[in-house]
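Question:
Now give any protein.
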Amino acid sequence: MRHEEDPMKRPTALVCILIAAILLPCALSAQSSAADASSSASKYYYANVSLDQAGLLEAIDKRLGGCTVATVNADGSPDIAVFVPGSGDADHIIFGFAPNVTLANIMRTKKAVICYFIYNQAETDKNKKYSGARIVVELEEDPAVLKAIRSAKKLGNSTTIMKIVKILPVG
C-alpha cells in the first residue's frame, strides 16, 4: 500500500519554520532592555511584501495567514506559540488565550511580538508569494477602551486585547 503525502503538510511546515526564524530574534530583542538597535535588528527588510496596519487587520479578519506570538518567560528564555487572532478595531488585535505560558508572560510583561505571515502557494512571482508583518503589541489596560471593544465585538472578559504599538516589515 502506497502512502499518499498530504500536500498541505510541506507548505505548512515551511511556513512554521519561516515564522519561527523571523520571530524568535524579534522576541529576544523586543523584550531585552539591554539590546542595542544595531546588533539586534535585522538589516534586511522586505517592504514590498510587508503589510501596513490596515492590510494586516484585513488579512487577520479574512484568516489569510498564520500567526505566532513571541514572549519572554520569567527566566529570560523565549516563548513562541501559534494562535489565531482577530481584529478588535483599527488599533487592536484580540486573542482568546486559554490559561497558558504565553498568556502568563503577556500578563507579566504587558507586551509581545506578533508575526503574521501569509503564504500564497498559487502565486508564481516569488516576490509576491509571501507577505506579512511583525507587530509589536502591548496589553490594553484602559477600561474604557476594553469595554468599547468587548461591546462592539461581543467579547467576554477573558478575551485578551493587545494594542498595536508598531508595525514592522518582515525581514
Observations:
- The CA atoms of residues 145 and 151 lie 10 Å apart.
- Residues 9-168 form a domain with the Pnp Oxidase; Chain A fold (CATH 2.30.110.10).
